[in-house]
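Translate sequence into structure tokens.
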Amino acid sequence: MQEMELICFQLITAAGGAKSSYIEAVQLAKEGKYEEAESKIAQGDEMMKQGHLPHVDLIQKEAGGETVIMGLILAHAEDQMMSAEVFKVMAEEMIDLYKRLESR
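Result follows.
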């Protein structure tokens, strides 16, 4: 059980860090700092990769027949990972919008 909690907290930490980077990227784009914004997107992507590694391990365990207990902490971790992915898409769209508005 401790191992599962550790994995979940790794997922939550990675997703939280990624979301923060994506939000910072939008704020930078709002100021016209597009290169810095892209750098923040890349930082967020790297954090998401760190979260995906233990996540893939859980999926492989379950696919291999091992029981993975779906508790509240894992549900929260899954939710945080999904919301970080949505934040990334929205951040990229907003950055593109700021670029278009500036070019007018």
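Note: The longest helix spans residues 72-103.
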